[in-house]
Amino acid sequence: MASNTQHHELPLPRFDDPVRLLIVVAPYYKTIADNQIAGARAVAEAAGATVDLVEVPGALEIPTAIGIAGRQADYDGFVALGCVIRGETTHYDTVCNDSSRGLTLLGLQGLAIGNGILTVENEAQAEVRADPAGQNKGGGAAAAALHLIALKRRWTGRGRDTAPPQETDLIRLAGELEGPGRA
Which amino acids does the record list as binding (2S)-2-hydroxy-3-oxobutyl phosphate (predicted)? Predict the structure, then answer.
């Protein structure tokens, strides 16, 4: 059910230094993904950012691709795009929860990520949310990444934050604790 609630959107940040975004998309639902990409590209362009695009097989691979790019490539931020439509099994819950959790953990490690992975009940809901002239969730994810890049640059006091994460900056997952008496 659609809502008539008005939402406040922040104006796009302005950048003195160039911004490079990587869109990571799972094009399982190709038409929906193409609309998300169009929306994300338009917002990035409006902010003066350059965009690269990579495709991965599914939503579960999006955090892994972003994590690899965050460690091995030179991007200021990332836009995660895809769509998960509820089916007849609990696989939907696993994909939604684990892809979101993966992106959240990467964000907490310092990556600027806009999450545009749609989680919907049916294809009609996805089409409305992906439409660049409608809810434009792809554009919203790009805007979120751009806002996080702006905050990161403001707080680091420099252009790109190129310093590699220090051991103390990383988030430890259960079973990865180190120290005396720990495996």
Answer: 88-89, 129
The count of C-alpha atoms lying within 13 angstroms of the C-alpha of 99, restricted to the half-sphere facing its C-beta, is 28
What confidence tens digit (pLDDT) does each residue in 95-115 have? Answer: 999 999 999 999 999 999 999
Count of H-run helices and E-run strands, the chain: 5, 4
Amino acid at 157: G
- Pairwise CA distance, residues 50 & 110, whole Å: 20
- Adjacent-strand bridge partners of 53: 23
Q: Which fold has domain 30-155?
A: Rossmann fold (3.40.50)
Is residue 8 part of the annotated active site? The answer reads no
Kindly list the distances between the CA atom of residue 37 and the CA atoms of 19, 80, 103, 137, 140, in Å, as whole numbers in the listed order: 17, 10, 18, 10, 11
- Residue 129 assigned ligand-binding role: yes
Is 88 annotated as belonging to a binding site? yes
What are the boundaries of each domain within the chain? 30-155
